[in-house]
Design goal:
With 360 residues, this protein is of the alpha+beta class. The protein folds into 2 domains: 4-130 and 288-359, no CATH class; 132-220, PDZ domain (Pdz3 Domain, Roll), CATH 2.30.42. Helices cover 54% and strands 20% of the residues. The protein has 10 helices and 12 strands. The chain has helices spanning 4-39, 84-87, 101-130, 145-148, 168-177, 224-250, 262-276, 281-304, 311-324, 330-359; strands at residues 44-60, 63-78, 132-133, 137-140, 156-160, 163-164, 184-190, 193-199, 202-204, 209-211, 214-216, 219-220. The strands form 5 sheets. It has a 4-stranded antiparallel beta sheet, with no helix packed on it. It has a two-stranded antiparallel sheet with strand order 1-2. The chain has a two-stranded antiparallel ribbon with strand order 3-12. A hairpin with a 2-residue loop joins strand 1 (44-60) and strand 2. The radius of gyration is 24 Å and the shape is globular.
Length: 360
């Protein structure tokens, strides 16, 4: 634990940076719900950031805006959303249940969509300022399987196991996830021609992982068209990384210690800030944007999972309604989402205490 005035100051800075990141990512998500609801004439009762008791709130027009105590999410509450008022006939024409099914679908889907849009904007900033790491091979280890396969420095890897490759990070990710040492089909470009070879990775006892024996990662300062192109590839890479992490969590390849909540994220921000601050404020800012990009993608994907209480679960009910031509009874849908919300709250509590025991 950090001690002393300097230590406390550094932690305070890290907490402030985390809160800024949290507000940007969550506000983007909830604003997506909000703006599409307004466009479809749906009344927004409350727009709030955080959970728990309100720190302050104000009313503007028909909507109440609130900031709550705990930085663990937010919500955009629509009139009649819980279905209870609808049963009693106490809702207006602008209530959520009275909107056309596809208007409700668009409203719910807009939250995750705005997370991806803000993530793409962040990727544009990063790529335009920093450039990108390409999949060009910088070196081949002597006696490695890659050298035996004929790979050379200057070759550009364009595909691995049938997947198109655009970034050096994609090469690293596929290599690191190859925990069983399976053969890798590598397509590379040399002198304008593509070739494909099969590499049998070699196991390294010291690092306990398999290696092809290459160093991939050239540098490209992007022009304007390339900036838009590689910003998309960068966001796509974060999406793939998130899905891989979820898969590894479900299959037991990751443990609960690999999952972080707000406390864990503050520590991550603190470590990144500590490493970047020596290079100046711009470097700190770019690193915080990078963390925000990852978290925005994570929030978008997590909310699209077809689980009760999440946006994805609500979208499933709306799809069923569109297909069958009538809604699921509100009381049944409400029970499902309530159960999901309770499970989600319990998970948040477990993650919080896991962070506490892990870091303190």
């Amino acid at each position: 634990m950090l001690r002393g005035k300097n230590g406390r100051s550094k932690v305070a800075v890290s907490i402030i940076l985390f809160l800024i990141i949290f507000f940007v990512v969550v506000i983007a998500h909830e604003f997506g719900h909000f703006i599409v609801a307004k466009k479809n004439g749906i009344r927004v009762v409350e727009f709030f950031i955080g959970m728990g008791p309100s720190l302050f709130s104000f009313q503007r027009g028909e909507t109440k805006y609130s900031l709550k105590l705990f930085p663990i999410g937010g919500a955009c509450m629509f009139e009649g959303e819980d279905g209870l008022a609808a049963e009693k006939g106490e809702i207006s024409e602008r209530a959520f249940p009275n909107a056309p099914v596809w208007a409700r679908f668009a409203t719910i889907f807009a939250g995750p969509l705005f997370n991806f849009l803000i993530a793409y904007l962040m990727a544009l900033i990063l790529v335009s300022v920093c450039g990108i790491t390409t999949s060009e091979i910088q070196g081949v280890n002597e006696g490695s399987k890659a050298q035996e396969a004929g790979l050379q420095a200057g070759d550009v890897i364009t595909g691995m196991n049938g997947k198109r490759i655009h970034l050096g990070g994609e090469v690293t990710l596929i290599s690191q996830l190859n925990t069983k040492g399976e053969s890798l089909s590598v397509t590379y470009e040399r002198d304008g021609k593509e070739n494909t070879v099969v590499i049998e990775p070699t196991y390294d006892e010291e690092s306990q992982r398999y290696y092809m024996g290459i160093l991939a990662g050239g540098y490209l300062k992007c022009n304007v068209p390339q900036t838009f192109q590689y910003a998309f590839y960068t966001m796509k890479f974060y999406v793939e990384t998130t899905f891989q992490s979820l898969k590894m969590l479900v299959t037991g390849q990751l443990s609960r210690n690999d999952v972080s909540g707000p406390v864990g994220l503050v520590k991550v921000v603190d470590e990144v800030y500590d490493s970047a601050k020596a290079y100046g404020a711009v470097e700190v800012l770019l690193n915080m944007i990078n963390i925000s990009l990852l978290l925005s993608v994570n929030l978008g994907i997590m909310n699209l999972l077809p689980l009760p209480a999440l946006d994805g679960g609500r979208l499933v009910f709306l799809l069923v309604e569109a297909l069958r031509g009538k809604p699921i009874p509100p009381e049944k849908e409400g029970m499902v989402h309530l159960a999901g919300m309770v499970a989600l709250m319990l998970l948040m509590v477990l993650v919080f205490f896991n962070d506490i025991t892990k870091f303190f």
